[in-house]
């Protein structure tokens, strides 16, 4: 086919999408975020048939497809780093302190949480390192994943 | 039995970093013309069904299905669009033919990545809005997290990932279809800009534009249409529980299961010994290693050493991505898997030019749908003398 061969002849039309959504957190999510906001605790849903607990809580079991009705508090002890990554720059700016993100898993639950790791230096961080969740002060909690500051190394 | 379904036509536009001279429809039209010309078929008369793989957000058009038929010769013919990678389209076409619904099916996938001005935002928008979007600043964080988990679990190294980049960019230098061919040394990958560590800038397959069209036909028709059909021996596709919290970041279970199913269909027990080469997803350098191990092309923890020692180069024991892969050809969004199959078919036909592997007869292709997914599809392809 014949093509445009002069760059100045190329025409574009610009367009985009300007739309917003409202995402329902759902039955299990409601329990999770109310508990986090009100007590600063992490909640799991329990499948008695498979003897598994899920974080974030789900209304159903991934393994047996049962509907889950029971919730339980996840102990602060038992969290560890499944994997982590660090960034030394953000939006093109060199950071004074590198940022650290972790996939936090807990030895007694299926799942975990993805969040920031704070109060730690990248050189000290390892996979398998024991950590614990750090909720914000109660008056700053609104019922969001940001009600956690993140995780911090266990003492 | 030579098979039930074969690839009889291959067409694509060369991968390019920008394609300002054509619209996406014109790019698809050109690839379709090439594929139909390759097999001597008229789409208005000879092609029974059409499958396109496209994701609305990459297209910049909602309900993109409606924008597919005219440039493929598919108006008022059975047509469907799958929001997934191109190998899912091949699997769909395979089933349509194997079920006896149609004899000839065309599959298309494309990338106009150069015109997607906010690629990272689209991948970020694929994250769970409630638990993940407020935390994850950029989708490449997920690649950094996965690369760390994979390397730690397998004892492969970032330096071995650099060997993948060197190989794939180098292979692409001799592939006229490729957009990203270049002499890149392992050392330059090692010293490229850190992103979300351990991920580095040159670990990332940079995007390109292209459209790929394959024409598939049933056994009897395939033999009448083509004297060089490439037979589809096995297909498989799986999606894991994709939540960031639940997935096992160390391994690609979706790829392992897709490969296992495809190999089982093909009657392959020992992939490494049975294949002449593999074209597998390398959207990030470590993914090539992870996918080699998942597919059983080598033992766990062996992929890095094989890459480092040259066993996966063109002249190696099991060449991996002789085309240059996505790192060398360019990341084609939903068209990556279809390009892997197109390049495989060209190899098996003996038409790969400087990158030709002598007497290549059987190969494996694997796709991954990219961040943040845990979806993959696999095929086994074979040339019969």
CATH superfamily of chain A: Nucleic acid-binding proteins
Spatial ordering of strands, largest sheet of chain A: 3-1-2-6-5-4-7-8
Strand content of chain A: 35-45%
Using the 3D structure, state the CATH architecture of the largest domain in chain B: 3-Layer(aba) Sandwich
Going by CATH, the homologous superfamily of the largest domain in chain B would be: Thiolase/Chalcone synthase
Placed side by side, the strands forming the largest sheet of chain B appear as 3-2-4-5-1-6-9-8-7
Work out the number of β strands of chain A. 8
Total E-strand runs of chain B: 9
Q: Quote the average pLDDT of chain B.
A: 97
As a whole number of angstroms, the C-alpha radius of gyration of chain B is 19 Å
Which structural class do you get from the secondary structure elements of chain B?
A: alpha/beta
CATH class of the largest domain in chain B: Alpha Beta
Instruction: Output the helix-strand order of chain B.
Output: EHHEHEHEHHHHEHEHHEHHHHEE
Radius of gyration of chain A: 22 Å
String of helices and strands of chain A: HEEEEEEEE
Q: How many structural domains in the coordinates of chain B?
A: 2
| Percent helix range of chain A | under 10%
């Amino acid at each position: 086919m014949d093509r445009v061969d002069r760059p100045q002849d190329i025409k574009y039309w610009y367009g985009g999408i300007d739309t917003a959504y409202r995402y329902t957190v759902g039955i299990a999510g409601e329990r999770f975020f109310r508990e986090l906001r009100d007590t600063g605790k992490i909640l799991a849903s329990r499948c008695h048939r498979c003897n598994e607990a899920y974080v974030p809580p789900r209304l159903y079991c991934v393994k047996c497809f049962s509907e889950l009705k029971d919730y339980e508090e996840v102990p602060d002890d038992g969290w560890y780093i499944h994997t982590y990554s660090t960034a030394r720059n953000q939006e093109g700016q060199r950071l004074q302190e590198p940022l650290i993100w972790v996939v936090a898993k807990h030895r007694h639950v299926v799942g975990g949480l993805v969040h920031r790791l704070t109060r730690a230096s990248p050189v000290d961080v390892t996979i398998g390192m024991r950590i614990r969740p750090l909720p914000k002060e109660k008056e700053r909690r609104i019922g969001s994943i940001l009600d956690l500051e993140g995780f911090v190394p266990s003492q | 039995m030579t098979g039930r379904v074969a690839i009889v036509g291959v067409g694509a536009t060369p991968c390019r970093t920008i394609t300002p001279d054509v619209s996406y429809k014109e790019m698809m039209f050109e690839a379709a013309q090439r594929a139909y010309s390759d097999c001597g078929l008229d789409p208005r008369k000879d092609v029974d069904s059409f499958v396109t793989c496209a994701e609305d957000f990459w297209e910049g058009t909602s309900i993109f299905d409606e924008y597919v038929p005219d440039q493929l010769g598919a108006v008022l013919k059975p047509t469907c669009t799958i929001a997934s990678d191109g190998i899912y389209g091949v699997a769909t076409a395979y089933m349509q033919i194997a079920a006896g619904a149609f004899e000839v099916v065309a599959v298309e996938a494309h990338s106009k990545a150069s015109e997607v001005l906010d690629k990272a935002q689209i991948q970020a928008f694929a994250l769970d809005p409630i638990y993940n979007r407020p935390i994850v600043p950029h989708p490449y964080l997920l690649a950094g997290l996965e690369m760390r988990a994979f390397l730690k679990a397998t004892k492969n190294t970032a330096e071995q990932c650099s060997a993948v980049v060197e190989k794939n960019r180098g292979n692409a230098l001799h592939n006229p279809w490729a957009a990203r061919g270049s002499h890149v040394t392992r050392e330059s990958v090692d010293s490229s800009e850190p992103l979300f560590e351990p991920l580095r800038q040159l670990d990332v397959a940079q995007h390109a534009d292209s459209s790929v069209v394959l024409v598939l036909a049933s056994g009897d028709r395939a033999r009448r249409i083509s004297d060089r059909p490439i037979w589809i021996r096995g297909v498989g596709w799986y999606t894991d529980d994709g939540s960031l919290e639940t997935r096992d970041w160390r391994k690609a279970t979706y790829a392992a299961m897709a490969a296992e199913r495809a190999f089982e269909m093909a009657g392959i027990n020992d992939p490494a010994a049975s294949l002449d080469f593999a074209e597998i997803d390398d959207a990030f350098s470590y993914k090539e290693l992870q996918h080699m191990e998942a597919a059983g092309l080598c033992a766990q923890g062996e992929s890095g050493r094989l890459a480092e020692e040259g066993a996966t180069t063109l002249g190696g024991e099991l060449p991996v991505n002789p085309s240059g892969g996505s790192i060398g050809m360019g990341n084609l969004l939903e068209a990556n898997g279809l390009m892997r199959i197109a390049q495989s078919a060209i190899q098996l036909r003996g038409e790969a030019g400087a990158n030709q592997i002598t007497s290549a007869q059987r190969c494996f292709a694997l796709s991954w749908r990219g961040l943040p997914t845990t979806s993959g599809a696999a095929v086994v392809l074979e040339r019969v003398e």
